[in-house]
Fold this sequence. Notes:
- This protein is 83% helix and 0% strand.
- The chain is an all-alpha fold.
- It has one domain (3-134).
- The model has no long low-confidence stretch (mean pLDDT 88).
- The chain crosses the membrane at residues 12-30, 36-56, 77-94, 100-120.
Amino acid sequence: MDSVKQTQLRMLKSGLLLNGFICIIALVFLKNPINFVVGIVFGMAISLLNFRLLYLTLNRAVQMPPPKAQAYATSRYLLRYVITGIVVYVSIQADYINVLGTIAGLTSLKLVILKTELFNSKEYFKNILKRKEER
C-alpha cells in the first residue's frame, strides 16, 4: 500500500477514535446526546469527503500546466467550501442534527491532521524555541 493510502487510513482511524471519544463524553454529560452524536457523525463524514476531494484535486492538479492547475485547484477549493457551507446550513435547519456536533465533526479531522503531522515533529518545536541569535 502506498504512503498516501496509509496516511488516509491513519487519519481515518485517528478521526474515528477522536470522535468516538467525543461521543462517549456527550453520552455521559448531555441530557439529549443523540442529536449531538448525529451531528458529529454527519460532520465527520463530510470532513472525510473533503479530505478525499483534496487528495483527488492535488493528484490531478500536479499533472496540469501551472495556470490550469491554479484555476482547477481554486475551483475545487471553492467547491469544498460550498459543501461545508451546505452542511452547516442543513445542520442549522434540521431539528435532529446538533450544529455544535456538526462543527465538532468538521473540525475534528483537521485537529487530527495537526496533531499527527505537525505537533509530533520535535524539530518543529525546536525551531520555534530557538532564539534568533542561534539561527
